[in-house]
Specification:
The chain has about 450 residues and is of the alpha/beta class. It folds into two domains: about 290 residues, 3-Layer(aba) Sandwich (Aminopeptidase), CATH 3.40.630; about 130 residues, Aminopeptidase i, Domain 2. The model has no long low-confidence stretch (mean pLDDT about 95).
């Protein structure tokens, strides 16, 4: 079971990570504080001594790994992955709209967001901005307004009597956040420059050149329920997995040759420099093991645990699940199966993860989508196809996935972390690892 300090750390991470960039910055500081050395991809490093390292790509992707004296082609890698992005509303490049005495900002829908819950929430803005300096230089940085500065008001029931029976949402016209009355003379660029100067006093921004900004709900994540059974908050899918993987790697008692990859852009297809269909992981593996044959031997002796939240059974909608596969909250991690390879689990990889959980005293649950419903996917099959590594898809059961506020059990993440800590510590001659590699 989780302890209070661990849960507090998780809630703090979720609250301080409104965007993938802020999540990676938070975890980078955590890794640095625990003895991991940051490597620059543009640097000359090739042969690394045994130790703990991490690299960041495009602000939203991160790889952390530990190396021992044992050669990688003989031990394989204990790999685990998750993604840093979540469905949300992203500000358009030229967003300002002045309409009927209001200032609004145009947005694009990022990923498969559940849109209804975005109405009538206290929203703020965060992300990264680039600008030109007064001396002609180019700069970029993260910003986070933190305070509620916008809302998307619903249309009153008196003006839409059918709203509770049928409600369609037009992404272009209905999802336009409201910021202020237009009799206040304030430009969006001026607002960004003011925030840059507030958060980065050394900056001298002259002109905003570009931005990746996302709206988020300012309500903090929380532990709730009569007995604290649940965690509610934004971006549990999939920042909870990111937190769990990094903490498992840090706190693994004797980590072997292990690696955690946190990809960006999973919610929009993973095709990017930091996405699972991009070269991020392949580039690193080539630098760790330049010889193609030895690298292939390493991958044949490796396993990837792809962690992404699973669909827990909803008590009001039990018929949306296959009746023999009903994962419930606080009853352990979920192994995700799909015959059409939307999840990469098979009998060997799924069996290995179940045995891993059993060794920690936890029984894994199973999820398979109903045959008459479409199945989502994860970074697991993409990474498996990109580098040719055996993969199992797992995750903690959750409710309201892709909503502005999701729900998970308050103890499932710690059960998953215990299993991952054991995974990262499996010695080359441990019967679990040798059995996998027979």
């Amino acid at each position: 079971m989780q302890n209070t300090s661990s849960l507090d750390r998780l809630l703090d991470f979720l609250g301080q990570s409104p965007t993938p960039y802020h999540a990676v910055a938070y975890l980078s500081k955590l890794l640095d504080a625990n003895g991991f050395q940051k490597l620059e991809e543009s640097g000359p490093w090739s042969t690394l001594k045994p130790g703990k390292y991490f690299i960041v790509r495009q602000d939203g992707g991160l790889i952390a790994f530990t190396l021992t004296d044992d050669p990688l082609d003989q031990t394989g890698l204990r790999l685990a992955g998750a993604h840093t992005d979540s469905p949300c509303l992203k500000v358009k490049p030229q967003p300002a709209k002045r309409k009927i005495n209001y200032l609004q900002l145009g947005v694009e829908v990022y990923g498969g967001a559940l849109l209804g819950p975005w109405f009538d929430r206290d929203l703020s803005l965060a992300g990264r901005v680039s600008w030109s300096e007064e001396n002609g230089g180019f700069s970029k940085a993260l910003i986070n307004f933190q305070y509620p500065l916008a809302v998307i008001p619903s249309l009153a029931i008196h003006l839409d009597r059918e709203a509770n029976k049928k409600k369609s949402i037009n992404k272009q016209t209905d999802l336009v956040p409201l910021l202020q009355l237009t009799d206040v003379d304030e430009s969006f660029e001026g607002l960004l420059i003011e925030q840059i100067e507030k958060e980065h006093p050394q900056a001298r921004p002259q002109q905003i050149l570009g931005h990746d900004l996302f709206f988020f709900d300012v309500q903090k994540p929380a532990r709730i329920g009569l007995h604290g059974d649940f965690i509610t908050g934004a971006r549990l899918d999939n920042l909870l997995s990111c937190f769990t993987l990094i903490h498992a790697l840090i706190h693994s008692p004797e980590p072997q040759n292990s690696l955690v990859i946190l990809n960006d852009h999973e919610e929009v297809g993973s095709v990017s420099t930091a996405g699972a269909q991009g070269p991020f992981l392949k580039h690193l593996l080539k630098r760790l093991v330049p010889e193609s044959e030895r690298r292939q031997q390493m991958l044949c002796r490796s396993l990837l645990i792809s962690t992404d939240n699973a669909h827990g059974v909803h008590p009001n909608y039990g018929d949306k699940h296959d009746p023999e596969h009903l994962p419930t909250l606080n009853n352990g991690p979920v192994i995700k199966w799909n015959a059409n390879q939307r999840y990469a689990t098979d009998a060997v990889t799924g069996g290995f993860f179940r045995a891993l959980c059993q060794r920690t005293g936890v029984e894994a649950q199973d999820f398979v989508m109903r045959n008459d419903m479409a199945c989502g996917s994860t970074t697991g099959p993409l990474t498996a196809a990109e580098i040719g590594v055996r993969t199992v898809d797992v995750g903690v059961p959750s409710l309201a996935m892709h909503s502005i506020r999701e729900t998970t059990g308050s103890s499932d993440y710690s059960a998953l972390q215990e299993a991952l800590q054991l995974f990262f510590a499996l010695a080359p001659k441990d019967p679990l690892w040798t059995g996998l590699n027979q």
